């Protein structure tokens, strides 16, 4: 049985599996990494959240010895990325946004080949391949060529490939970008299982939701620089947590609803904003208790509600909140069109 609890891990204490200081990598005039500092505690997941072009893949490539940094240093599992590349490579696993499987080979052959490349004996490579196929629910498809696999199966095969050498530190570079929600959930389950078994993970993502699901700590990166960091809850609090989106049965009541929430002065509930064009009331909330209180208050006020939804802050909102620029309106995903 896999123990899925994460209570015994404190991201703020214990030894670091990854330590990065002042890491710089420039491509011509592009500052892909412009002085990055970060730590990942052993056995925890650090989410590196940032938009396209932020420098996430360059960071992962530097920490995998695939790219040599221009300045700064990084130590992974006790090995310096520049001075001890061979030792370092043996302790890490890497799964990229683009799966690295060989299309013509079967799932089993792919895993066997990687095992051999990692200097495992034939017998060990075979048993390790079978073990991982089983674990990633690919046993039935083991002998089919990877080109016949679905997107989710490929991604699982890619994750399995990154586990062949029993890495103690795993880099997952946008592991679910481009996947449908069901496949994305499969990948999340696998990552959670690896972490429960003790792996240290550096995960890059563009999705707040993914970071919230998987990460113990978050670092937000933009234009090669770290612009914020901390616990997931901390960061969510900083950006206002979720936004409650309420559609009244009668759009004419929007303003009155917003006013009644403001008058109530609910503890910790941010300003309610009515957006008549959308027929929606947006209320920033930080907890389930606040959500319940807002709905209760509106009900008690005699307002009739046609639809209620919550949205996590989008990456845009996170950036606006962090960089302190004026964020006039929540722009998170608007709920599906509503039938009253
Ligand atoms: N090999 C390269 N040559 C030139 N520019 C690059 C190279 N790799 C990355 N860059 C540039 O560095 C910046 C960061 O890229 P990248 O690390 O891939 O970001 P992300 O993975 O966050 O999308 C981008 O502006 C990108 O165009
Ligand atoms: Mg990338």
UniProtKB/TrEMBL annotation:
GO terms for molecular function: ABC-type xenobiotic transporter activity; ATP binding; ATP hydrolysis activity. The keyword Translocase applies. The keyword Nucleotide-binding applies. One of its GO terms (biological process) is response to antibiotic. InterPro entries: AAA+_ATPase, ABC_transporter-like_ATP-bd, ABC_transporter-like_CS, ABC_transporter_ATP-binding, DrrA, P-loop_NTPase. Its main location: membrane. One of its GO terms (cellular component) is plasma membrane. Pfam families: ABC_tran. It is an enzyme of class 7 (translocase). Keywords: Antibiotic resistance, ATP-binding, Cell membrane, Membrane, Nucleotide-binding, Translocase, Transport. It is a peripheral membrane protein. Gene3D superfamilies: P-loop containing nucleotide triphosphate hydrolases. It is found in: Cell membrane. Residues 18-248 form the ABC transporter domain. This is ABC-type xenobiotic transporter. It comes from Streptomyces nitrosporeus. The lineage of its organism: Bacteria, Bacillati, Actinomycetota, Actinomycetes, Kitasatosporales.
């Amino acid at each position: 049985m896999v123990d899925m609890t994460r209570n015994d891990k404190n991201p703020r204490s214990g030894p670091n599996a990854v330590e990065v200081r002042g890491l710089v990598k420039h491509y011509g005039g592009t500052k892909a990494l412009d002085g990055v500092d970060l730590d990942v505690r052993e056995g925890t997941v650090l989410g590196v959240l940032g938009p396209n072009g932020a420098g996430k893949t360059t960071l992962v490539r530097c920490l995998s010895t695939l790219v040599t940094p221009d300045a700064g240093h990084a130590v992974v599992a006790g090995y310096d990325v520049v001075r001890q590349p061979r030792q370092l490579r043996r302790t890490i696993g890497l799964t990229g946004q683009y799966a690295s499987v060989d299309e013509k080979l079967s799932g089993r052959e792919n895993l066997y080949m990687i095992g051999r490349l990692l200097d495992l004996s034939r017998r060990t490579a075979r048993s390790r391949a079978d073990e991982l196929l089983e674990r990633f629910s690919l046993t039935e498809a083991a002998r089919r060529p990877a080109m016949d696999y679905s997107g989710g199966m490929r991604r699982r095969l890619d994750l399995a490939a990154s586990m062949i050498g029993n890495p103690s530190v795993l880099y997952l570079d946008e592991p679910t970008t481009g996947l449908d929600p069901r496949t994305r959930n499969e990948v999340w389950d696998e990552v959670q299982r690896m972490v429960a078994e003790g792996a240290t993970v550096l995960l890059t993502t563009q999705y707040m939701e993914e970071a919230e699901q998987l990460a113990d700590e978050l670092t937000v990166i933009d234009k090669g620089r770290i612009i914020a960091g901390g616990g997931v809850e901390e960061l969510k609090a900083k950006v206002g947590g979720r936004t409650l989106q309420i559609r009244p049965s009668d759009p004419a009541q929007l303003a009155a609803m917003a006013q009644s929430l403001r008058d109530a002065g609910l503890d910790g509930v941010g300003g309610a904003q009515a957006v008549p064009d959308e027929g929606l009331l947006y209320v920033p909330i930080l907890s389930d208790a606040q959500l319940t209180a807002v709905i209760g208050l509106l009900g008690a006020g005699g307002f009739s509600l046609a639809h209620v939804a919550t949205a996590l802050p989008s990456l845009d909102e996170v950036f606006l909140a962090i960089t302190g620029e004026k964020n006039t309106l929540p722009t998170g995903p608007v709920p599906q069109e509503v039938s009253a």
